[in-house]
Every structure is written in structure tokens, then in C-alpha cells.
Task: structure prediction
Amino acid sequence: MNKTKQNKIIDKCFGFLGIAATLFGLIMLLVFIIDVLSDGLGRINWSFFTSFPSRKPEQAGILSAWVGSVWTMFITAMIALPLGIGAGIHLEEYARKSRLTNFIEINIANLAGVPSVIYGLLGLGLFVRYLQLDRSVLAGGFTLALLILPVIILSTREALRAVPFSMREASYAVGATKWQTVRYQVLPAAFGNILTGIILAMSRAVGETAPLITIGALTYIAFLPQSPIYFSSGFPYLHFSLKGLFDPFTVLPIQIFNWVSRPQKGFFTNAAAGIIVLLGLTLIMNTLAIILRHHHQKKIRW
Amino acid sequence: MIKKKRKLLNLKETVIESLLFLCSFFSIFVTAGIVLVLLVESWGFFKEVSILNFLTDRQWTPLFINKHFGILPLLCGTFLTTFIAVLTAIPIGLISAIYLSEYASLRVRNTVKPFLEILAAVPTVVYGYFALLFITPLLRQVIPGISGFNALSSGIVMGIMIIPLVASLSEDAMHAVPMNLREGAYAVGSSRMQSALHVVFPAALSGITAAFILAVSRAIGETMIVAIAAGQQPKLTLNPLVPIETITAYIVQISLGDTPHGTLEYRTIFACGMTLFLLTFVLNIFSFKLKRRFQEVYE
Result:
């Protein structure tokens, strides 16, 4: 056998090794999904979603956990989206190259790499203690907002960068101001990619556990935060209240963690069922983001 | 009239620009907040425990009657799990990156990459369950003496989690290597593998190193997997089969208990946080600089 032939065979083998390595992680994920489905699928029923946690595994549910997750996600989005998109627009469209801009950029890159548990310590020191928000939904939402802020800034910038410069020039040519150009040309063109980034950031926030444990979110909660809208029998019947923001809370990943760390076997089944819900949610969000990005790339050709 | 309108428009532009500037300046406040909180609380800690003691004492027993505050056992646990994770992720991630950048068609590459990202999007508490209730029982069949909590299974699962990070960033680096370098290699008769390993890989080395460092930093800061599956016993050991405790797992352990605010035990988590922050900070900056230098060479 000559050398070229030998090389060709080695080359082919290496190619197969590459395919195997690329598929390895996905196969592990698949194995794991099958494992968790077989452990927990039987536990999922309507009452699992409508029951509070309990001492008895077969009666316990995720009501307070998913309601808490919805609350925190809402607050996180309200804070992180405007700040993150605003910062992205500023850095990509407005900021001139200066020492300050450079510093802000390095700072954001670094923030994106800070371990999530450190954000928990920040939340504990700043929101829980200093601002005396206590272990409330509000403190949790703020903490997660700071955590996903760099992710949103970075993805917004990337989305804006993909919009070709000629579009801005055309807008300026017909006399539009900077903001008009950004508002009516650049943002609409980048909208799909920005949305993709937002969905990915929110899917990360939904699964975060460590920072919320660190700020002291409770692991056992048998009540819900007060609803922002509620009815009463007397006048004026319909009420609005923000008191729920200051109530203690738990979230889905913390509930799962709590069940995993108990010795009784029955709670493992609950944890598996909780994981099916949480993993289902993150996978749906991620698939949605992939489809959205794909669709957007297809629709616009520059 | 037009002049007045122009003035109003200019005012609006200035206001909007300042608001946007404030948004991006806000990120500096976040970093300042982190540094300030960590400094203030660990200052209280280091007033009672000397830094020398913190760095050289070989025991970590803040919750016992006989208290020792040596960070070494926690650091050792952190490095042990990180080492196992990196050992898992680097070979698989690199081979996968070489495949995606040098072998796969552009279409395969663009389809596979987003799916790999899903691995990184799985919540870490889910990986913790995986490590404790799937990988550890699996390992027990091969290594009968392994404890229910151990560094090995959490390290392996952590490795699986950071594969996409290594693969994606190294692939970016290799993809950025100019085509004419490969053409040169082909011209002298190399196979794809030879060109990938002997030309593209060395040319992309600084970018790949940046990916490697970022992976280490991510593994050091990973919390839930080790909190669930690695145990809660700070030990100065390199044995991957026994329960250990990492810095991050310790922070979670204390946060779950009801340690009163303002006590020395409470402040230990901030001293731990400071150590963790400094470690990851140095690694992140180093990786960022390397990546930037790499981009300057090829773009």
C-alpha cells in the first residue's frame, strides 16, 4: 500500500472520529432525556401542577415553584430588556472609539464570564441586605436581571452589526436623524435576531438556581405571592396590588434541587417530573430561537 | 417654525443618546457593585482571620466548634472537578471543532452548531440530577468502591456541559484561519487531517487557548452540579472517588442553612466568593486578550 492511500484511510477514519465526537454530547443528552422521562413521566398529572410542596412525595406539586418562576421571569425581563437593548444600541450605533467605550466593552465581556453564584452574592449584599428587599420576588428578579444583562447586550450588538451599513446611509440620505434611522430602519431589520437573543437569555434565567439560593430564596413554600390583580365582593370589586413583589418565593429549579437533595426515593421521582417540565420549557425556547434565527436569515438576504 | 422644530428634534436626539449611554454605563455599576459587596463583607472576615491563615491552613471547618478557615481544601476540590471536566471536554470539543471546521460542509456546520448550543442551555440543576442518579450508578458498576457523592461523576457531567463552549469557540478560531494556508498545505500533498493538525491547528492556537481558558473558568464557577453530586466534605485530596467540596458548593451549603447575618460564618461565603471572583476574573481577562489578539491577526 502506498503512502497516499494510507493517508486517505487515516483521513477518513479521522472524519468518522469527528462525527462521533460531535454527536457524543447530543447522544448523552438523548440518553438522559429518555432516562428522566422513564423516571418521571408517570408522576406528571394535573394535580402535580396545582399542588404545593408536601412532606409526602406523592402529594407534592410544583404550584408555588412555577408561579414563582413566572413572577421572577416577568421582573427580570422588565429590567434587563430595556437596559440591555439600550446598551447594545448605544455601543453599536452611537459610541465612538474611546478609552471609556473600550473599558465598557471589556467590562461587559468580563461580566458575561462572572460565575452566576457571584451574582447571587451581589444580590444578597445589595438587594436583600442594603436595599432591604429581603428574600422577595423583587430581589430575585433584580438579581437575575443583572445576570442576563451582558448576554442581552452582546446578542443585541451582534444583531445590529448584521444590518448592512448601506441601509443607514440610505436613511441619512433622505434626511433622517440618527435616532430616526435606528428606530425605523436598523431596529426593525435586526428585530428577529434581537428576539432570538432575548429568548436564549430568558431560557438561561429560567434555569438558574445558584444565585437564587444564594440570595436566600426558600426551598419550601406553601403559599403564593399575592396576585397583582384580584377580586373582592365589596366595592370596587377589582383590585390592583404590587404587594406580591415583596413576598417570599421559590422557583422551579430550586424545587427540583430540594427534591434531589432529599434521601427518600419518592422525591427523586418528583425531581424527575419537575425536570421534565423545566427541560421541556428550555428545549422549546431554544428550538424556537433556532427556528426564528433560521427563518430570519432566510427572509433577508443582503 | 421649522427652526423651532429642528431645535426640538435636536433636543430629542440628545436626550435619547444620553439615555442610551446611561444604559451602557450601567454595566460598570454592576461590576462596581460586585467588587464593593465582596470587598466590604470579606474585609469583615479578614479582620478576624488573617489572609496568611486563610491561604495556608489545611483545614476548612467553619461550622465546627474547632474552627479552621483554610481555603486550600475547597480550592483543591474545585481544581479536581475542573481538571476532570476539562479532561472530558477538551479532546471531544477539539475533535468536534476540527470536524466542523475542516471536514463538514458549510450546511452541516450551520445546522449542527445551534444544536450543540442546546447542550449548554440545559439548566445546571438538571445536569446535577444526571450526575447523581445516572452517571454515579453507572460508574459504580465499573468502580465498585466509588462513593455516592464524588468528584468524578460531577466532573464528567460538567465536561459534557462545556463541550459546546470548547467546540464552538475553537471552531470559530479555526474557521478564521485564511484559506490560502490550507491551499498551501494541499499543494504540497497533505491530506485534510494533516492540513488540519499541522497547519490550521497551530495557526489557530491562540484562539483555541482562549477557548480552553474560558472553559476552565466556566468549570471553576459551575455550582449546581457539584452542589448536588460532589458532596459536602472539604478535603485536601486528589482522589476523584470520594466526596469533596468545591468553593461554589460551600456557598450554596451555607446559603441553604440559617446562618445569621453578620456572623463570621456568614462572611465566609463572601471570602469564598472573592477568591472565586479573582480566579475567574484573571482567566476571563486573559482569554479576552488572547482572543482579541487572534482576531487582529486574521481580520
User: Anything to note?
Assistant: The beta strands of chain A are 229-231, 238-240. The mean pLDDT of chain A is 88. DSSP finds eleven helices and two strands in chain A.
